[in-house]
Amino acid sequence: MISFVRRLAAAGAVTLGLLGASAAGAAPTGVQLVFEGGDLKSLAPGATISYRFARDTSDTALAPSFQDDVRVVVTAEDGGAKTAKVDLFSGARAQSFGSLSVDGNPVIVVLLEQDVREMQKVLGGSPYYIRNRIRDAISGGGQVEPARLDVDGKTVDGWKLTLKPFAHDARRDQLKGFADRFYELTFSDAVPGGLHSLKAVTPRDGAQAPLLTESLVFTGVTNAEAGK
User: Fold this and answer.
1) In a domain? residue 124
2) Which residues, including other chains, have CB under 8 Å from residue 205's CB and lie 6 or more apart?
3) Which one is predicted more confidently, 224 or 174?
4) Which of 91, 119, 123, 179 yields a CA-CA distance of 20 to 30 A from 223?
5) Where residue 79 falls among pLDDT bands split at 50, 70, 90?
6) Are residues 104 and 124 in contact, defined by beta-carbon separation less than 8 angstroms?
């Protein structure tokens, strides 16, 4: 997963540290939203950002549907440097990823890497090809547009990033049902950690209902000021 961060971050990032528009008034880029927005350094160690994850599919060839919680915890290393930990799910599905950078919100990269690995299990072949297509979509192929988002019952300004990594891929025929998979991410400065939601949808050929939908939605933050 760390290699995924480095590969994507090297795709042409220019550090502005903004979720809002740049100094020139232009929309942020995909790289800025994914890797430079949602700075966790302003949160105190112990702060926990919570999300609700939902997976929905009726295809028995894929992993089953479920819902669970995801948390990003700001931690302190020896010497006081802040890092982050991402806790995915509970019970038999539980996974934890620690010592992550607080320069952005690491939950995005963690979930994208999980997505890459699942696609690789279904499709076979190398996960690097899938990673590279997602990297390319973030670094230059994504569409960014203004969005109005609901946060705690209030409507706030934000941004929506749409990624279609395989839309023009030369190997679409090898990607089976995943060739038209797309991602929608929403961001706002009003949300701790920047990320409001992440949704990945795999349409089903000739059907209205998707083959697979996965979503992550911000639900709250605790201990944001403790020990600051």
Assistant:
1) yes
2) 177
3) 174
4) 91
5) confident
6) no
